[in-house]
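Re: Re: ligand-bound prediction request (bumping)

Still looking for help on this. To restate: I need the protein modeled with NAI bound, output as structure tokens. Inputs repeated here so nobody has to scroll up.
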Amino acid sequence: MNEMTTISREQRPYSEAAKKALSRKPALFINNEWVASSHDATIPVEDPSCGKEVSRIVDASDKDVDRAVAAARAAFDDGRWSNLPPMVRDRTMHRLADLLEAHADEFAELEAIDNGKPKGMAGAVDIPGAISQIRFMAGWASKVGGETTAPYTMPAGTVFSYTVKEPVGVCAQIVPWNFPLLMACLKIAPALAAGCTIVLKPAEQTSLTALRLADLVAEAGFPAGVLNIITGNGHTAGDRMVKHPDVDKVAFTGSTEIGKLINKNATDTMKRVTLELGGKSPVVVMPDVDVAATAPGVAGAIFFNAGQVCVAGSRLYAHRSVFDKVVEGMAETAPFWAPRASLDPEAHMGAIISKEQHDKVMGYIEAGKRDGASVAMGGDAPSGNGYFVNPTILVDVNPQMSVVREEIFGPVVVAQRFDDLDEVAKSANDTAFGLGAGIWTKDVATMHKLAAKIKSGTVWGNCHAMIDTALPFGGYKESGIGREQGKAGIDAYLETKTVIIQL
Ligand code: NAI
Ligand code: MG
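Reply:
Sorry for the wait, this slipped through. Here it is.
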């Protein structure tokens, strides 16, 4: 019997703090207050490690959305946030980060219960990542500004012309379930720094940390209406946010399918839109690598967060001379990545977010097998409760198979061989997506040559999925529009006004 079948996947007891958060009455956070929905509809909150309902959240109505947007609109229009000294916005944001830090353990546990990811991973990645988004962007509050630029066609001294940066206005921010708090903070931080006001909607599967964040928003001292947090379904509440005439900008992270729909729906009112969408990121392993060091790295590129990562390294291209050794080395990581309940301290991989997503991932694995793929690792799901999928490597695949072309969003990698650089560059780009790519080589020239050829928003060398709040992140092609993080991230929340005064 192998180790994966002997692991106990029983979920561990919840802490008192988590129980308190789960027993919260379903409500919406509008104008710094908890308010009841206009109707009784709620959405169950499930722990994916056991498949049990553990709480309920509001399924916001159109009226609820309108109320949140009205609060954000009023807070923007009277300047209660944008007119504050930048130092005060900066300090308020740092206070929010301080409060998150003080409650980091509770947030990590809530994320683990809600999403199914290991608490250890949430504590090491999600929560500190969320905090650094806020701290980095807080500094921009005092560092954005326009320019004084002399006109090209007018004599000097006849006009005075300059540009001003202004906050774009009311922002509807819609985030997915794979990194709930991190995605929420990645969205709110630049908007707050720019002086915008916000209606944030977390994913219906994972709203617990956003709701807990709301408590801290009031405590940190943000004026009422600046950051409103509502819960609800995408096709109703999310859709209402996107189409609302009083919303100036939509920022979305999620599926490419919904991203395209949102882009269309936002057009009628010409909202500013940033979209961070799906991927099918290639990972290229050159023949010169140290296989023993590389194999665990490329395994982590796909198995981290159970592959539910927009930049997951889901297409592996290993040079023919090292292919077998790389796949063997990845398969040796199976015990490390064996799925466990999210509160198990030994967990590195948890559960898949939902039964729906679990079945989708298993459906892809079955489709791959039907199409002729062979399983080099995993390929099945452990028995018992909870939405677990064993880490899976598929070989003997070809570029036409759905497992090679489509985003699976699970711990499934397709591994292919290649012979030369031009060939692998072509294969890497043979996709509608362009979010991330990984290159593993010790040869600096090869690294740069390949990095130049690959069409994606981020290229990693000898690592994968490293994101940093100072560095722009976003997609080429169908992986999105615009960039988040870094200076590009703050610019996405600013309008440029040009002032020309005849003297
Ligand atoms: P989704 O794109 O439907 O949901 C993401 C967010 O958008 C959620 O907050 C949802 O409530 C909202 N939403 C859904 N429909 C909307 C609409 N019509 N208008 C406004 N907001 C809307 O993703 P879903 O259904 O959770 O997952 C489906 C697939 O999408 C996954 O299997 C995965 O392949 C992919 N996905 C990709 C993500 C990424 O980061 N690239 C994140 C989550 C899912
Ligand atoms: Mg959906």
